Amino acid sequence: MGSSLVAALVVVAIAALALVRTVRIVPQATAGIVERLGRYHRTLLPGLNLVVPFIDRIKETIDLREQVVSFPPQPVITSDNLVVSIDTVIYFQVVDPRAATYEIANFLVGVEQLTVTTLRNVVGGMDLERTLTSREEINSELRGVLDDATGKWGIRVNRVELKAIDPPASIQDSMEKQMRADRDKRAAVLTAEGQKQAAILTAEGQKQAAVLAARGEAEAAVLRAQADAEARAMRAKGEADAIAMVFRAIHEGKPDQRLLAYQYLQTLPQIAKGDANKLWIVPSEMGRALEGLGGLFANAVAAGREAGAVPEPGRTGAGDGGARAPGAPDPAGDAPGTDGAVRGTPAPG
């Protein structure tokens, strides 16, 4: 009884172990490599899988997701014999779990060493300046070489990035000095160009101002000349109109000889005002007009005496302040003759 129970328990344990070894669950994005009696049998897909217990064995599980691996800085010598330190980042994915398991012992180490050797080959043909400025070119060459080399390992390299390129400290100092000198040079050039442009603009502004000022003065002179001409024309027209009006009024009034002689006598003082007028001529035709004017004055005096407004000659009084004094010549007798000159004024020799 006891031995049969032990046997039953052993059978149950073996059955449970076989069941456990038979049912295998593979997670998503993972593949299992199954070996049967030491040889590759098949690849388990994600989900529930059944294997033959004690005959099939799962060697390892492979992660099928894209993986990112950052390798430590690697010293690389450029074509101008300068050592730079370069950090790389590899993005790869296992596409063939069987090849990744059996074609290489450790594909991570293989990718790392392949990256280092390829990086030294690519950068070794470049100088420092090109290395620092050709990241995209280095990335493309690294990806192409790694993708071709890792294809037989069942790995696909999706992307390669250079995380950092660090030249030696002395080179960095020299580069900083060079860049500072270049910046100072560009600043000096830009300052000189700015001053040149400012001087040119100032000169052009002064030139335009002078041209505009000269043009304004010329236009102002033209306008002043036009205004002066128009003013003169208007004054001449006014004087002409005034002369025409006076001439018309004289002709319409029909003046006689005596009026003309009187107007001439009023004009004589204006003629004699100049300092250089030592001698002036009276036309002989004015004699008769003056004789008539003297007769007109005599008639006016006689009429005044008859009316009692003018006192007799030789009489003085309070009301004769404007009368002629005794012995004063008669106004009628003072009239100029027909000899052509006014009395008291030397006749022309």
Which keywords apply here?
single chain; 349 residues; alpha+beta; Tetrahydropterin Synthase, Chain A; 3-stranded antiparallel β-sheet; disordered C terminus; Band_7/SPFH_dom_sf; membrane
Label the overall shape.
Answer: rod-shaped
How many whole angstroms does the radius of gyration measure? 69 Å
Number of domains: 4
- Extract low-pLDDT stretches: 312-349
Strand order of the largest sheet: 3-2-5
Q: Beta-strand level of the residues, as a percent range?
A: 15-25%
Q: Label the structural class.
A: alpha+beta
Compute the separation of the termini in Å: 199 Å
What is the H/E order?
HEEEEEEEHHHHEHHH
Query: Sheet with the most strands?
Result: 3 strands, antiparallel
Count of helix runs: 8
Helix content: 40-55%
Count of β-strands: 8
In quaternary terms, these chains amount to single chain
Structure description:
The protein has helices at 2-22, 97-102, 107-124, 128-133, 135-150, 169-253, 257-271, 286-307, and strands at 23-26, 30-36, 39-44, 47-50, 56-63, 67-77, 83-94, 155-166. It starts with a helix and ends in a 42-residue tail after the last helix. Strand 2 (30-36) and strand 3 (39-44) form a beta hairpin. By secondary structure, it is an alpha+beta fold. It is rod-shaped and about 205 Å long. Mean pLDDT is 78; it is low at 312-349. Helices cover 54% and strands 18% of the residues. It folds into four domains: 13-63; 67-167, Band 7 domain (Tetrahydropterin Synthase, Chain A); 175-218; 241-349, no CATH class. Its main location: membrane.
How does the SSE layout of this entry go?
Layout: H1 2-22, E1 23-26, E2 30-36, E3 39-44, E4 47-50, E5 56-63, E6 67-77, E7 83-94, H2 97-102, H3 107-124, H4 128-133, H5 135-150, E8 155-166, H6 169-253, H7 257-271, H8 286-307
Antiparallel strand pairs: 1-4, 2-3, 2-5, 6-7, 7-8
Helix pairs in contact: 3-5, 7-8
